[in-house]
Amino acid sequence: MIVFKTFLKVLNKCKTPIIMYTVFLLFFSVFNMRTSGSSLSFVASKPDILIINEDEEAGITESLVKYLEKNSNIIEIDEDEDAIRDALFYRDVNCIIYIPENFRKDFLDKKNPEVRIKSTGDYQASLAELLLERYLKTANSYNETVGSEEELLKMLDATLSKQVDTELASKLDTGSLEKAGFYYNFTNYCILAGSIYVICLILSSFKNEGIRKRTMVSSMDYKAYNRKLLLSNSLFAAAMWLFYVILSFPLLGKIMFTRHGLVYIVNSFIFSFCALTIAFLIGNLVEEKNAINGIVNVIALGSSFLCGAFVPMEWLPAAVLKIAHILPSYWYIKTNEMMKGIETVNMETMKPVFINMAVILGFSLLFITAANVISAKKRRLG
Amino acid sequence: MFIHNFKYTLRILFKNKALIFWTFAFPIILGTFFSMAFSDIEKNETLDIIEIAVVDNEAFQNNIIFKEAFKALSDKENEERLFHTRYVKEEEAKELLEQGQIAGYLLLEDTPKVVVAESGIDGTILKQAAEEILQSGEIMKNTGGFGILEGGASIADISDSHLSYTMIEFYTLIAMTCLYGGILGMYAINQNLPDMGSKGKRVAVSPVAKGKLVFGSILASYVVQLIGMALLFAYTVFVLKVDYGDRLLLIILLAMAGCLAGLTLGVAVAAVFKADDNLKTGIIISVTMLGCFLSGMMGITMKYIIDKNVPLINKLNPASMITDGFYSLYYYDTLERFYFDIASLLIFAFIMTGISMLRLRRQKYDSI
After folding, report:
1. Measured between CB atoms, does B135 come within 8 Å of chain A?
2. Where does the pLDDT of residue A116 fall: very low under 50, low under 70, confident under 90, or very high at 90 and above?
3. Distance, in angstroms, between A237 CA and closest chain B CA?
4. Which of A36, A359, B13, B209 has a Cα-to-Cα distance from B182 of 20 to 30 A?
5. What is the mean pLDDT of residues B113-122?
6. CB spacing of B121 vs A45 below 8 angstroms
7. Do A141 and B147 touch (CB under 8 A)?
8. What is the mean pLDDT of residues A345-349?
């Protein structure tokens, strides 16, 4: 009990970083959830565009603006050149469309007016260009054959409102799965950083020479002491895991009560165990308390960046993902990503997931062995 | 005495491993992670060739417009190619979709129908393409066979270059390093403070002008800071290929002003707070991280959100002044915004210096 009590005392001292990691997790999860909605029917992507109309809003110009409004999100920004430039740089708008003065008149007079655009060059911008291009092409075609503007607008409207039905084949709630994947990917950072930081600090406190000497001469069996220390650390890791799992229920909702949710929970449990073994290994290696902070940051941030905890895996360069194979986080996050595409959870579809989990357990075994070898060597006090 | 103190402060700073790790090595390591994680993001956001399938049934074979259009949109020679198309049976298309090999497929019966796996850009493009083909059939009909005409109103692309927004990450990294440099300044000043240890007490009773000592310590920290900054710049430019624009002198000026702001922040923290080393370091790190967070380090849009909605916060935030300075050098042609940022940094440094001077001068202790 005395070992455990001391453990709690040290734990109390390092609560600030744990709180900080959790705040990060909460902030980014909530931030992320606000942006992606979920739906079971097809929702077309809409580019964010800004229209700067220097022409009067009537006739064909009005019709163009209306068409763009219907098929994209119009962003309102002050007519200040700097604000507009910033909006484009930070992707608040994907495309700025400048409708020139006298567009309507020039168009009807067949003077071939030019609509200028500024785009970010990403796919949303391409989509905006596609829409604008189609409108102009159609309008040009009718302009040649139709006499009055009124008739032109009517035909334009009739043609452009022809739609193609779109159906969603999968019944997967991709929105919720996306959120769950994001949340559990992010916990990679919290679990790693939290366990390494706390466990290293605790181990190094117990390793303080005076304390060690006192423990050694005390009547407590060395093995029992070690066992208790190990147990307390495992208890801490389990508590942290449980905390993050419980937190995920109100944040993610329904999805956590499905089989998919169960896989996320089991996966994070196995990873927490692995994080515990990593922390144990590092705790045995590191002598100096000052170094712990640096090591935590390098290992936790490194694994998170390289394996796709912050930036989605599909966006990472192939070479980085290859390197990431040597990190347990990669296999943890890979399972989370896989779950997004698996429709029914059964023994057959879970095979690759089991393989990932086995790899994580293999890593854990490796770390435990290494930690034992090192601590055996260090047991003697000079 | 000034030179003596300057020299020894340099040695003390360089010998402190933790200090050198946080101010020299950590930014370089973090920069490497950034570059590994972010280098492909923007490439992934451009439109790729989309994998699709078309159900090859009788209706499709008989519909010349659709057949030709999909052939053209999948043609390797075509510059505006959108799709890689497989022509398959309906069952096969369903299977491909389930396996995730295609983003969606087109089924032509009486009317065209698009089936996709999930809502998103790929499905939208397929839907838009199918609609465009459908609509061009309409145009054909309405214009008596003229079809789509070339010419008429057109689009002119006048997009800016320098639109790589991931650069902001590296600019915040520089800002972080500038402000972390404050730890150096704080550490150096602590050596001269009587309440921080016996070394400070000895310094305090020595018959040397304190201004000289403090100035020597600060200058030494600044030198160390600039060396670290030069290393980081060299690394980001030559290894990570970060683009700072091409106005080299202004870039150096900004980096120096940024370092000065960080340094004076550290000195002020050392002077104002009566606490131990760890707490003072904690304060500097918290201020730095909060500042970097608000200027976009943990999510680039954060800077934009703050700039747009509560501009005052980032006008007071030194990390944001530095980030914004680099941003304006990279993206803007004019220099007004850049000089505003430089001026803000200098004013910030001036205020911090003022606060430190008020606290450091004429200190007296009855007992410590």
Report:
1. yes
2. very high
3. 26
4. B209
5. 85
6. yes
7. yes
8. 86
Q: What's residue B232's pLDDT?
A: 96
The reported pTM is: 0.87
Give the gap in angstroms from C-alpha A94 to the nearest C-alpha of chain B: 11
Least confident of A321-330, B101-110, B310-319: B101-110
CATH code reported for the domain at B47-150: 3.40.190.10
Q: Each residue of A46-88: pLDDT tens digit?
A: 899 999 999 888 889 999 999 999 989 998 887 788 888 899 9
Q: Do A291 and B18 touch (CB under 8 A)?
A: yes
Are A140 and B98 within 8 A, CB to CB?
no
Q: Which of B131, B163, B331 sits opposite A164 (nearest CB)?
A: B131
Give the mean model confidence (pLDDT) for residues A212-220.
82
Residues in B touching A117 (Cβ below 8 Å): 155-159
A313-350: string of b/e by CB count within 10 Å (b at 16+)? bebbbeebbeebeebbbbbbbbbbebbebbeebeeeeb
The reply to whether residue B138 touches residue A162, judged by beta carbons under 8 angstroms, is: yes
**What domains can you pick out in chain A, each with its CATH number?**
2-39+174-381 (no CATH), 48-160 (3.40.1710.10)
Give the residue-averaged pLDDT of B77-82: 81
ipTM of this complex: 0.85
